[in-house]
Amino acid sequence: MAHRLIFLDTETTGLRVEDGNRILEIAAVEMIDRKLSAPDRHLHRYINPGRDSEEGALNVHGLTTQFLADKPKFAAIADDFLEFVRGSELVIHNAPFDVGYLNMELAKLGRGKIEDYVESITDTLKMAKDLWPGKRNS
């Protein structure tokens, strides 16, 4: 059976989900057996978070409230996103951050947790810290 990996990243309105920050961009690329799958097997969505970004976050991603104003809310892209990642191993750099935001967005919709939809989640930041302790792992 083929091993399906989804490399995933999010951008958010700020650093702390506890402060009411939201996801405003999701990008994901599929690999099968460690090879990029078909060119159209990726997912990229801008999301209207319904709030302004914190200054620090805006300096990182540059996605303004005006740019995101006509983009869909998370609820409108949730089914496509979940279908894309379903049954895969998610590979995320600093997974606790992205997973925290994904779980918050899914909870708002009564859709459980991302862990309910995927086989596993691998954190490449933890892997890097384990392999190269004390080194910069961005």
At a glance:
By secondary structure, this protein is α/β, with parallel strands linked by helices. The protein has helices spanning 55-61, 65-68, 74-85, 95-108, 124-131, and strands at 4-12, 23-32, 35-36, 42-46, 89-92, 120-123.
Q: How many alpha or pi helices? A: 5
Poorly predicted regions are none
Tally the beta strands.
6
Mean pLDDT: 94
How much is the radius of gyration in Å? Answer: 15 Å
Q: For the terminal residues, how far apart are their CA atoms? A: 33 Å
- The H-and-E topology, N to C, reads as EEEEHHHEHEH
List the helices and strands and how they pair.
Blueprint: E1 4-12, E2 23-32, E3 35-36, E4 42-46, H1 55-61, H2 65-68, H3 74-85, E5 89-92, H4 95-108, E6 120-123, H5 124-131
Parallel strand pairs: 1-5, 5-6
Antiparallel strand pairs: 1-2, 2-3, 2-4
Structure description:
The mean pLDDT is 94. This protein is an alpha/beta fold and 138 residues long. The chain has five helices and six strands. Strands 1, 2, 3, 4, 5 and 6 form a six-stranded mixed beta sheet that branches.
